[in-house]
Amino acid sequence: MLRRIVDVREGETRALVMSFVYFFLLLSGYFILRPIRDEVAAASGAQKLPWLFAGTLTATLICSPLFSALVVRFPVRRFIAISYHFFAANLIVFYVVIRVYGMASGSTSAIWAGRAFFVWTSVFNLFVVSIFWSFMADVFRSDQAKRLFGFIGVGGTLGSITGSAVTAGLASRLGTANLLLISALLLELAILAVVKFPPRFNLGPTDKQDNAPIGGSIWASVTHTLRSPFLLAICAFLIFYTVGSTFLYAEQSDIVGRFYHSREARTVVLAQIELAAQILTVLTQVFFTGRVIRWIGLGATLAFLPALSILGFGALGFAPVFATLAVFTVLRRGSNFALTNPAMEVLFTVVPREDKYKAKNLIETFVYRGGDQIGVWTYAGLTAIGLGLAGVSFAAVPLAAVWLYCGYWLGREHSVRAAQSYGPSRASGPNTPVSVA
């Protein structure tokens, strides 16, 4: 039955199922937290976002070398477990803080607890998901990634839907603090999925054993990234994405904050938007993701979201109202999760193993949050000179056009590197031409 849905081949089934379960548990836990985080942003207002994102960037800068130190010292499954245990313990701390101070009382302690939770959740999201995809890029080859990453993404999408539904349905009944305990439990279960994951089956003659530390330098994430045009192009692609996302996020905070006046109403409507986006995502992932990447190529797949952003920001410029925002947000998030994210993760299957954990983590945490900073301060600058929601939306259109070209270039470069690493047949799969055009 599984082979009717996804092109899974002999020896891949157990790894595929465990990856699916692992991602489901991870994103279920995170999407329980996301509406709570977004409500803090909506309550603070768009003018506070630059400072919240600055705090997030600072926290990411502190955590990134600490994670690299774990990569150097411990085997892969060990440092993944240590990282997830750490974040689960943090959730217990926030549970106690919310029980004592709350986040909705309006007191100084409650306000700072909410801001701390926003920063922590933003860091948590990037690290746990980046670690997951680093693991996937490590255990699957490029041709396997093109076939299987879309289906693995379905696990994450179903987890996103589950987490959003739990928050939307139970936030008013259980209370925010108890939702944090559910998230911590799901994170601990994700560790079991890592422990039970089958050994790497793509070990080459020069690879280290699966249970050996990766080693190298703590600062290799920085030096390797700066020396690689391919990794720098991935950085640029991600920055363009985060700038556009930050523009849209600030506009969401502004519009939702003006249209919905209570915390409960804001939390519910944000969870509903997220739920709609994830339903769209899972339908696309089940029926189209793997086929689209192989049919139109990696470059065209990476160019799809920038093209959609050109249209979406243009529409928001002409009609900066909640309905336009909701439609664009759902389409953009759905396309990102269903197409862009799996396509971007395929890019990392052709880089050295050390870079899959160190450089990749740096790019998807610090560089990502650096893009947030560029986006949020650019947004603040544009509004300071008198541009409203419409003007900011129009300003995002040319940025999306440059982003589109960057994605297309990355797809072409990946094809060349995959052919060099695996050979033409394994790089592109049996039914896909090796052309880089």
Rg measurement, Å: 21 Å
Report the span from N to C terminus. 35 Å
Number of domains: 1
Find the structural class using helix and strand composition.
Answer: mainly alpha
- How many DSSP-defined strands? 0
Mean pLDDT: 82
Brief description of this entry?
The protein is mostly helical. It has helices at 2-5, 13-44, 49-73, 76-101, 108-139, 142-174, 176-195, 220-227, 229-259, 263-296, 298-318, 322-347, 353-384, 389-422, 424-428.
Break the fold down into its secondary structure elements and pairings:
Blueprint: H1 2-5, H2 13-44, H3 49-73, H4 76-101, H5 108-139, H6 142-174, H7 176-195, H8 220-227, H9 229-259, H10 263-296, H11 298-318, H12 322-347, H13 353-384, H14 389-422, H15 424-428
Describe, in plain words, how this protein is organized in 3D.
This protein is mostly helical and 437 residues long. It has a single domain, classed as MFS general substrate transporter like domains (Growth Hormone, Chain: A, Up-down Bundle). The chain is 83% helix and 0% strand. The protein has 15 helices and no strands. The protein has helices at residues 2-5, 13-44, 49-73, 76-101, 108-139, 142-174, 176-195, 220-227, 229-259, 263-296, 298-318, 322-347, 353-384, 389-422, 424-428. Helix 6 runs antiparallel to helix 7, helix 8 packs across helix 9 and helix 9 crosses helix 13 (353-384). The two termini are 35 Å apart. Mean pLDDT is 82; it is low at 203-207 and 427-437.
What characteristics describe this protein?
Growth Hormone, Chain: A; single chain; disordered C terminus; mainly alpha; 437 residues
